[in-house]
């Protein structure tokens, strides 16, 4: 069975079009590809080292690279390359990126795709175009009508979920709430159990303060986190999230299923176990060495710095809580190198490959 993979181009002035041209032959060998985004973004790369052509296919325009083809949906076909500039986000490129995401989400929500893979957009360009969205995750939640989502980054050696995402560090501290953290722990463990097929992931929570507060010497916020861990453990096995959307069929994962086939099977257990808060300066290495299956970080950089250092090519952004599979490479638009043909497609290929595997499982529901 062939996966129908929907790719959104992201900002047409960033590295998304280049990554697509480099990766398309490999992706199209395993999946049917639909791309949603501005054709003008690809046309900006005409005359470069990777030749491409536009063809007319049975369902409309197609992009061809080295014999591989992708169906193309352009939400704004009137946008020409004369209104775009490589390496410079603008209102025009922001609108193209956001509308590409809207078109891609529509494809999977209406059953014409099995998984969505999003190339990076620039938030500043999206805002310049009048879209008040913090990022892909929140926009996709709105489009799908999902009651709850969490941003996760999964990799073969360890995985991270963010409790908060695009907000100031001051607001994270001021808004730290026992119940909210407990819900993030519980929901993340539930979705991660679905992903891995192992019902008992070992989930570790990051501390907020150095040394987890050192018994109050460096702050008392971590005392609330101790209570949140206890709450999450009390909810384990309660079916608290059973009614929330999932792209996967109910019941256990397919026999022998692993999120990453090359990774050893998770530790056995019939329900999640929660621990922490752990000092963050040692927790991620412990997880990378296999002590924990999932780390919950309290804020954006607390989780992303270590996973980008330890798993720079293999970490994939995965949204938990959507009714469809959504993955993304773990990097941005890289305007500074757009058009220079220096962008490495390895992380995009990793994201698309994982999306295709998960999409194939979702299509069997």
From TrEMBL:
Q: Specify whether Protein biosynthesis is a keyword of the entry.
A: no
Cite the GO molecular-function annotations of the record. Answer: metal ion binding; NAD binding; oxidoreductase activity
Q: Which domain of life is it from?
A: Bacteria
Q: Which Gene3D superfamilies match?
A: Isopropylmalate Dehydrogenase
The yes or no answer to whether the keyword Phosphoprotein is present is no
Keywords, alphabetical? Metal-binding, NAD, Oxidoreductase
Which InterPro entries does the entry mention? PdxA_fam
Q: What is this protein called?
A: 4-hydroxythreonine-4-phosphate dehydrogenase
Lineage of the species this protein comes from: Bacteria, Pseudomonadati, Acidobacteriota, Holophagae, Holophagales
